[in-house]
UniProtKB/TrEMBL annotation, chains A, B:
GO terms for molecular function: nitronate monooxygenase activity. It holds the Pfam family NMO. Signal peptide: none annotated. It comes from Nocardioides pocheonensis. It comes from the Bacteria. Keywords: Flavoprotein, FMN, Monooxygenase, Oxidoreductase. Gene3D superfamilies: Aldolase class I (3.20.20.70). CDD domains: NPD_like. This is Nitronate monooxygenase.
Length: 376, 376
């Protein structure tokens, strides 16, 4: 499955693994793929610690960092610092929403956090003001060779800055229209994510979206995202003209991941019909397991989700509680995952997954060859 | 792209074309594929005329018929004849819904049909009582070798009856659970349709659904549906273990189709984000172009769509008006199509489409071979 993008990045297989766990980044790299650390939940100081750990453990292999600068969000036109912006946004969160969030938790027997608003209402890296310091940290690490933006075209000066540091820029998209904007802005690798995908995604299915994006931006390389959790699915992506696979869900179900046993059991038990695109955690449509939290925020009569990044300032309390009380929170936890969750039934070693995908890819392409040979 | 199912059915390419136009059935067969006539809108007498025409024009090539027997619908447990059932169901349609439908048409300057309820509120073939006579007609035609059910597992006695007549049974599904029910009932060919698909479809995307169904029912052959409109997409389906492609949207955009120029222009102009899964025409989620009719039925405060087959007894007036006043009705017409509509930009000859798909398939599999060779 070697494609030009493998040579450009110096990797063996075009398997890109999005994860929030540094151990998974390292394990994927060692197995021949490319690990990408999701930075949104880390302060710049925490991110520095994570990347230093990766540097020490990854040998001479490259890796990436994923940030989130949406093309539209509350407060995007301000010139404020991250702290000032957080202060302003905190005041915009209606009491009604906070109380509704606390009630959902209380109704599920989850202890409600009584700390101050400043502790509770976290802005995280969902804005340019808070993502830019993350980029600065990332660029201090020479083996960090790719920065991906999960939710829009990165700002022009940021692309220029990353290129000047000799690194590449990637960006996700859900339509050929967005892909064209990325390509025109100088993005090096475009990730076309179908509506099957976990996390933020559009509505157009992968089988339709991928070839449209490939055609739109050629010769810019396109990675396929949304619905990939096997070598057969990678073969399908390459048949449709993509140069590799950008994957996320599978890496929640590896031994190296920090996900709790309760959450991994929820993923293992879920079918592909148990996910929903919901605005209830981040404010933008984001695919995750359906549960009582997602249902509550879409029931008519209840408060409607706020925009990004305000909604996370509310849902952050559920995310925090999940880390603190994993056994009690599965019904209200944030369990982002794609429809491919229906294929995930057990926790495996990262290296085992990569090996299996390569074998499955070879089997799939061999089967096509045999069909073609038999037809002659 | 020759697979075992080609030999079983005696066709050159595993390209299955669902269409409501007899001319397309014949043109696809002559190009080496397998045409399937959607019977739902025909009375048994009309269907007899269509199939006789196909028999006269198709040479010695086989073809299929698609019927609709949902697994759940209003009146399904009655033992009534089709006429009795229609009479009963007509009384169940609320006046409010009929008036709302007429108002949408009137608001768009479409002349409102003043004929009697019996003329207007058509039951069509959406039930076992009305589909069974269609099956009887189809079985009188020896070149008609496959009957597909679009919306559920066909009744056991119907499967037995079709098998006794030496024909095969196919059925669509949107989950491995439904696929298992089909296989256990003795369905010969299972069609896995992803949520991208036009017409009735589920929510799981093709790239995820197809391999799950293949795994669930092996060795029963699976056809891939939902999002296929090119040879690359067929290659992807075969890489995922399917034996062929069940396609629909493309055949709305061929010269042999009866679709009006106005409708074909609407399809040509649409992007993949312009479709919606709506209950506003048939009562079950069905993918079509978004327009004022689909919007009206999902606006809070307006009447909600009825179940199947009641909703079509209301929307039938819009379908009828579309045939009568095609220039005025594009905003309220029933334009079923999949997300693949974004790839469809012009009207072509059926034979040209089939040739192109075969060439694209060969290109896609050749590209995979070259990647594999370069990696060695």
């Amino acid at each position: 499955m070697r494609t030009p993008v493998c040579d450009e990045l110096g990797i063996e297989f075009p398997i890109f693994a999005f994860t929030h766990c540094r151990d998974v980044v390292v394990a994927v790299a060692k197995a021949g793929g490319f690990g990408v650390l999701g930075a949104v939940g880390f302060t710049p100081e925490q991110l520095e610690i994570e990347l230093s750990w990766i540097d020490e453990n990854i040998g001479d292999r490259p890796y990436g960092v994923d940030i989130v600068i949406p093309n539209k969000y509350e407060g995007m036109d301000s010139e404020m610092s991250g702290d000032e912006l957080a202060e302003m946004l905190r005041k915009m969160v209606p009491r009604e929403h906070l109380e509704f969030g606390r009630k959902i938790l209380a109704d599920h027997g989850v202890p409600v956090d009584e700390s101050t608003d400043e502790d509770t209402l976290q802005l995280l890296g969902w804005t340019e003001a808070t993502a830019t310091p993350q980029v600065e940290v990332a660029l201090q690490h020479p083996k960090m060779t790719l920065i991906a933006n999960a939710l829009g075209t990165p700002p022009a000066d940021m692309i220029e800055h990353i290129h000047a540091a000799g690194r590449k820029v990637a960006a996700l998209c859900g339509s050929p229209y967005q892909a064209r904007k990325h390509a025109d802005a100088g993005v090096d690798i475009i990730i076309a994510q179908g509506g099957e995908g976990g996390g933020h995604c559009g509505e157009v299915g992968s089988i339709v979206l991928w070839p449209q994006v490939v055609k739109e931006v050629a010769p810019v390389p396109v990675l396929a995202a949304g619905g990939i959790g096997s070598g057969q699915q990678i073969a399908a992506a390459l048949a449709l003209g993509c140069q590799g696979a950008w994957t996320g869900s599978q890496w929640l179900m590896v031994e190296e991941a920090e996900n709790t046993a309760v959450q991994q059991k929820a993923y293992a038990d879920a079918t592909s019909r148990d996910t929903v695109r919901s605005r209830s955690f981040t404010g933008k449509p984001c695919r995750m397991l359906k549960n009582d939290w997602t249902e509550a925020w879409q029931t008519p009569g209840n408060p409607e989700p706020l925009g990004m990044p305000l909604q996370y300032m509310v849902s952050g309390m559920a995310v925090k509680a999940t880390h603190k009380y994993p056994d009690q929170t599965v019904d209200v936890a944030f369990n982002p995952v794609g429809q491919v969750v229906g294929q995930l039934t057990k926790v495996e070693k990262t290296a085992t997954v990569v090996e299996r995908w390569v074998e499955e890819y070879v089997e799939a392409t061999t089967r096509l060859d045999e069909l073609n040979a038999a037809a002659l």
